[in-house]
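User: I've been trying to design a sequence by hand for this structure and keep getting stuck. Would you show me what you'd pick, starting by listing the structure so we're on the same page?

Assistant: Good idea, let's start from the same input. This is the structure you sent:
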């Protein structure tokens, strides 16, 4: 059909993409038809929010205007960066402790519900959570363990749990109504399986996943030992035979829903810095639970990619930027060799900066010259200052 002359808002209807900046203005008639703003390089044609995928209009400022204030724009960006790291309520990725049954089975309980979640300072959203956190609780078990998971669905729709990357029987795959009945609102379901090989996997909803997963129902699941290529020489660099990472964390990427552009359920400046003493190593498992790929770039030192989707690579490789597509997992190690504050971010630049300042998929690695200390105890619902050799999850 045709549209009458006027001004129209154009948005991406994928949940969360409008809030992440995929919106612009379409002008029909008048100047636009004759080559006005839209045709001549206005927001729609010039790569504003919709084209750039940014948080606010990329290129909306008129740099030729006598009213343009570069100092004010610089201050907005500088102030946003100096706010890091900001304290917010809630920490995701907390390790879920099992109940050990008489036969040795490890039993876990997960409850899905819509709960308040602070994504960035002062921004509370109605997140879809497992056990009240984003990402949901991390599950770690040993090879050979039998796992029993009690799933309680307190969301308003039917749901299930898909064990993404885990070699489970078809009956436990979590794809209702094909492999199991739909777990209706207010109902529960029990999964049980034995895990016979190491794996770096994840779990998330499969039914109504376009709603529940971008809004927060995702988490890490790790089986067995971290498959670091100890003692190997890769591109002339020998990995220590006795390497034990000072930090091992999941980094879950998201870009949609109410959570939006985020790392481990938080948006900069509420993302958690990793803190290492000089010479310490870190291990990171990237998980992409979003809707688009994210090239994760670490300043200062390269990352050794040693496993893909939980499968150790025959030929590990070094990279400073690693592109993680939806559903993928990449495992890396790196060494904090040079002291300083090293930025770590998605290199789709409008996922990290906007005219409103730095935001979204940005954090940092802080490398100090001092001796590593043991992490201080902290309450699970509030962020404490990080200590060397640790990271504050979130």
């Amino acid at each position: 059909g045709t549209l009458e002359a006027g001004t129209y808002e154009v948005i991406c209807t994928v949940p969360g993409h409008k809030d992440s900046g995929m919106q612009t203005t379409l002008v029909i008639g008048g100047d636009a038809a004759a080559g006005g703003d839209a045709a001549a390089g206005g927001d729609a044609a010039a790569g504003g929010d919709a084209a750039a995928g940014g948080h606010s209009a990329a290129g909306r400022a008129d740099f030729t205007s006598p009213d343009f204030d570069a100092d004010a724009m610089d201050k907005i960006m500088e102030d946003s960066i100096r706010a890091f790291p900001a304290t917010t309520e809630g920490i995701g990725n907390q390790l879920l402790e099992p109940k050990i049954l008489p036969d040795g089975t490890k039993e876990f309980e997960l409850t899905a519900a819509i709960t308040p979640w602070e994504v960035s300072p002062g921004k509370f959203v109605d997140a879809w959570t497992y056990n009240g956190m984003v990402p949901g609780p991390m599950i770690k078990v040993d090879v050979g363990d039998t796992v029993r998971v009690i799933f309680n669905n307190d969301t308003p729709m039917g749901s299930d749990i898909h064990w993404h990357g885990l070699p489970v029987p078809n009956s436990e795959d979590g794809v209702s109504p094909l492999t199991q009945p739909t777990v209706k609102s207010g109902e529960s379901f029990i999964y049980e399986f034995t895990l016979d090989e190491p794996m770096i996997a994840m779990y998330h909803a499969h039914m109504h996943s376009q709603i529940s997963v971008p809004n927060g129902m995702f988490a890490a699941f790790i089986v067995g030992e971290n498959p670091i290529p100890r003692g190997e020489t890769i591109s002339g660099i020998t990995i220590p035979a006795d390497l034990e990472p000072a930090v091992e964390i999941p980094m879950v990427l998201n870009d949609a829903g109410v959570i939006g552009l985020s790392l481990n359920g938080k948006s900069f400046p509420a993302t958690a810095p990793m803190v290492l003493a000089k010479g310490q190593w870190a291990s990171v498992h990237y998980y992409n639970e979003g809707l688009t790929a994210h090239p994760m770039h670490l300043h200062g030192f390269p990352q050794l990619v040693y496993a893909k989707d939980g499968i150790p690579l025959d030929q590990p490789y070094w990279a400073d930027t690693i592109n993680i597509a939806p559903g993928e997992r990449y495992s890396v190690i790196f060494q904090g060799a040079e002291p300083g504050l090293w930025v770590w971010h998605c290199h789709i630049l409008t996922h990290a900066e906007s005219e409103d300042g730095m935001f979204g998929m940005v954090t940092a690695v802080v490398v100090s010259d001092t001796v590593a200390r043991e992490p201080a105890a902290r309450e699970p619902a509030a962020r404490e200052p990080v200590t060397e050799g640790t990271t504050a999850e979130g």
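That's my pick for every position. To get oriented when you compare it with your attempt: Residues 32-59, 374-388, 390-394 have pLDDT under 50 and may be disordered. The chain is about 5% helix and 40% strand.
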